[in-house]
Amino acid sequence: MRQLYEKGIPISAIARQIGVDRKTARKYARLLKYPIDKRKCRGSRLDPYKAYLDAKLKEAPYTATRLLREIREQGFTGSYPVLRRYVSKVRDGLRTKAVYRFETEPGHQAQVDWGDCGKIKQSGKESKLYCFSMILGYSRMRYVEFTTSCDTDTLIRCHINAFEYFGGYPREILYDNMKQAIIKRMYNIKESRLNPLFADFCGYYGFTPRFCRPYRAQTKGKIEKTIGYVKSDFFMGVKAASLEHLNNEAQHWLVRVNNQVHGTTREVPYERLRKETLHSIHGVPPYDTSEVLMRKVSRECYVHYQGNRYSVPYKYAGYMVEVKVDEKTLTVFYGKNRICCHDLLWGTYKVSKDKEHFKGLLKHIRKENTKPYRRGWVLDCDSTLSQVEKRSLSVYDTTGGIHDEQPGL
């Protein structure tokens, strides 16, 4: 209105153009300073809780729904949209954080993580697919392995395979708070509770497990980038006939990426590996990760494991045996004696049969069938003892035997 008035436009025309009363147009058109809003600024119902919300959002990225539930318990009576707008505003200020790039000394640290890679179908069965990845902090040497399980036994087996690939292991390994390694995470790691099997594995080799603070994935940024790189540079678009085929292709990919110049160090990881002061695994027996089960051998001379059948020598039919399963084989023991061994089958409803286990079984069955069928107990008495003594009936009369007439009947 001030600009229009300075151009010589009449007050009535300004009022019609802006859509206000002529008195209002005259008032603001003739003002020399910008008008100040003297209305009193009302406070928000959220004001008493803002300090609490700021502290919670710095602690972790809690959802607005959870925060609403917590402050409602403290007496907040405002609406959810008011809280959501404030939470969004605070998060925008917390998203950009300065980070410090942490470079490790040779042989000091490795980082480990799992990646979810969808599903894989093999032998007619669809299973979830995971990617285990380990990277050495100094040399940037990578190791990846695809699995259909991410339990603690699988995690340990992947560690051992990575140690063999690198030729050793570092002094410490950094993890996020995966349940396969740590059951309960506390702020003080000494108060945290490790998975017993994983703790035993760490103690066996003597490396120290380290764990990130919750919601601080950038702490292990090297492995986070590796997982993304595996998915984009190798896994995307790959066609694998089986898990074994996929891992073979991954090994070829590792040879290529570990022999090219790394973007950060500007050196080849294989060359920097020579400077890594890793603990050697030579002379150290591999940690036993086999699964041990008790099974009863069926009448058909098989033991069952995960929906498949494995043959056992027929003389052990009906016996309780010990079944030891590792990554590739299934071994059966009776006591301390090793009975048989099979390659582990993939899928379900499959049979691993060794013909030697049934050799002589038909002859044994025929021999059993030729034996006479005996019903009840049969006494094999001597013929001299089997003759019955003959007596006169008068003997029974004199000894109180059975009479024709009995008293009381």
Query: What structural category arises from helix and sheet content?
Result: alpha+beta
> What percent of the residues sit in helical stretches (DSSP H or I)?
25-40%
CATH architecture of the largest domain, by name, is: 2-Layer Sandwich
Q: Mean of the pLDDT scores? A: 82
* Number of structural units classed as domains: 4
Indicate the overall shape. Answer: elongated
Give the low-pLDDT segments: 376-386, 401-409
Name of the CATH superfamily of the largest domain: Ribonuclease H-like superfamily/Ribonuclease H
Instruction: Please tell me how large the radius of gyration is.
Output: 41 Å
- Percent strand equals 15-25%
CATH topology assignment of the largest domain? Nucleotidyltransferase, domain 5
Terminal CA distance:
138 Å
CATH class call of the largest domain:
Alpha Beta
User: What composes the largest sheet?
Assistant: 5 strands, mixed
Strand order of the largest sheet: 3-2-1-5-8
> How many DSSP H or I helices?
13
How many distinct beta strands?
16
Secondary-structure element string = HHHHHHEEEHEEEEHEHHHEEEEEEEEHH
What does this structure look like?
There is one protein chain. The chain has 409 residues and is of the alpha+beta class. The protein has four domains: 1-34, no CATH class; 47-94; 109-280, Nucleotidyltransferase, domain 5 (2-Layer Sandwich); 291-361, no CATH class. It contains 13 helices and 16 strands. The chain has helices spanning 2-6, 11-18, 22-29, 50-59, 64-73, 80-94, 152-166, 196-205, 221-235, 243-257, 269-273, 361-370, 394-398, and strands at 109-122, 125-136, 142-147, 168-169, 172-175, 182-184, 193-194, 208-211, 279-280, 291-296, 302-305, 308-311, 320-325, 329-334, 337-343, 351-352. A hairpin with a 2-residue loop joins strand 14 (329-334) and strand 15.
